[in-house]
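Title: Request for sanity check on DUF2252 domain-containing protein prediction

Description:
We are preparing a figure and want to confirm that the structure record we downloaded matches what your pipeline produces today. Could someone re-run it with the sequence below and paste the raw structure tokens into this thread? We only need the token string, no images.
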Amino acid sequence: MAEEFENTTDTSFDAAASKAERFDKGEAIRKVTPRSVHQQLNLTEDREDPVEILIKTSIGRIENLLPIRYSRMMESPFAFFRGAAAIMAADLAQTPSTGIHLQLCGDCHLMNFGGFATPERKLVFDINDFDETYPGPWEWDLKRLATSFAIAGRWKKFSKKTCKEFAWNVADSYKRHMLEYSKLSALQIWYAHIDLAELIELGEDEEIKSFQQKRIKKAGEYTAHEKEFAKMTYKEGSRARIKDDPPLIYHPTGEEGKRILKEAAIVHKRYIDSLPDDKKVLLNRYTLHDLAVKVVGVGSVGTSCGISLLMSATGEPIFLQFKEARKSVLEDNVKIKNKYPHEGERIVMGQKLMQSASDMFLGWTNDSQNKFFYIRQLRDAKVKPVLEIMKEQNMSDYAKACGWALARAHARTGDPSLLSGYMGKNDEFANAIAKFSILYADQNEADYNKMVDAVKAGRLPIAAET
């Protein structure tokens, strides 16, 4: 179905066509790819073993951190889903497609959204993880996001009907806000952002609203680098050093550690060179004092990630986070050539395309072994979702917020009129996405059980974190 559509219709943005013409073009796509087909999950009999995919995605990761990766994924089907972007990408490649491509997040699940401060110190709500960003079918991000709510709802013991409603709310919010963006100019879309305080004010649960407002107030007052400095460092003579907290934070040792420390200054300089001139001037007032490995996330465990401490001549600190930039899990599944020879640049540029405002220190670098990295501030007034305390209404509100944020991100590099024309104004598209989400939640649970069996059989190593 996707091939037939792609061979007969040009879905690139047509700046010469009116909004109404582009809307009609999107509506016409339904004749080739009906909206109802997005409920389908017809996986082939020769589907690759999900455990084998996990093993493949572990190649090149730090060997002694793999048990932590698998232990985290073992915690629940939802934790497994967060670390299984490669498995779902391969499955999404088998689903019907409209053939409309735009910049994707690539690992679009509910824990990869949240609040953070813009360079102007305004708190916004947006997507905040772009390790897998890549051009691809717009439906993939939406299906992964909606499915994450269905799976998280099960983890919180909500009913099947409620979990399906969460997924439906994601798709419905995405559709409604995409229609709103279709009425704006390209410049207005580029300026658009979601104010975190205003978003929280829309909530109906007064208890949660009060909790979130306190978090925003604390985040706004949070001078991140100074507080992190007090918490994460100690004095070694006259020099500040990052505290070890193994196995999650530690300094590299042995020959590999010597190599990393020796070339750290060169790698840091390459990173500075990737920044705009104004940021170069700013960061050149700081020198690199220390760096340590820091285990992060679920999907990133085992990749080369860490933190570096920069200090000014007068003792002010800046903490930067560096993360290894590996090949996107989408690349082989969408069959689109990567335009960036540097994977760090791919992530940075994808992030700048999709986010309403990106970290001012966002840049890329590589080491002498040509391992790619991207770098950003360690924390900057971040407000993460607290899934554990969310009740049914909170989850519904959050689903709508994430659908809205994804629509805004997609509207920047896609054609909102074309997408709105395709989705239409009734519930058919949202219904299809909700049904798909439940089907994939079932598949994810089956894959999770296969991982559990693989651990029991000794195919995957696990270890308790300390």
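Thanks, this matches our download. The longest strand covers residues 286-294.
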